[in-house]
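It is worth pausing here to work through a concrete case rather than discussing structure prediction in the abstract. The textbook approach is simple: state the sequence, then state the predicted structure, then interpret. We follow exactly that order.
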Amino acid sequence: MPHSGTSAPGSLAFALPYEGSHIVVFYDRVQKSDPSLVTRLLAYTLVHEVTHILEGITRHSKRGIMKAHWDGEDRFEIGLGRLDFAPEDIDLIYRGVDARVLAMAAPPIRGPVAAR
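Step two, the predicted structure:
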C-alpha cells in the first residue's frame, strides 16, 4: 500500500517526487500490515518510493512494484522476492534519471541584473 504525495490512512509510505529528495516511511504500519513480511515489505516499499523520486512523478502502475495498493497476490510475490517492475516503469526510471542529469548540467538560472 505505498502511496505517494500524502499520508493517506493505510499508506505505508509516501514520496515527494516533485520536490525530488524526500520519502517518509511509516514503519509501524509496515510492521502491522504483515508481520511475516516486514523485512521484504519494507524493502519493496522503499523501492516503490525511491522509484517515484527517480521517475519524478506520482503515477502508479496497474501491476508490479509501482502498483498503488498491493493485494494478496502481490504480497505473495513480495514474499518470494519476485514482484517486479512493469515495463513502462523501467522506461520512466530511465527518463527521470536522464532529466535529472540534464538539469544538473544546465547553467543556473539567474534573476534580473539590477541597474547600476
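Step three, interpretation. The mean pLDDT is 90. Helices lie at 27-33, 38-55, 72-80, 87-105.
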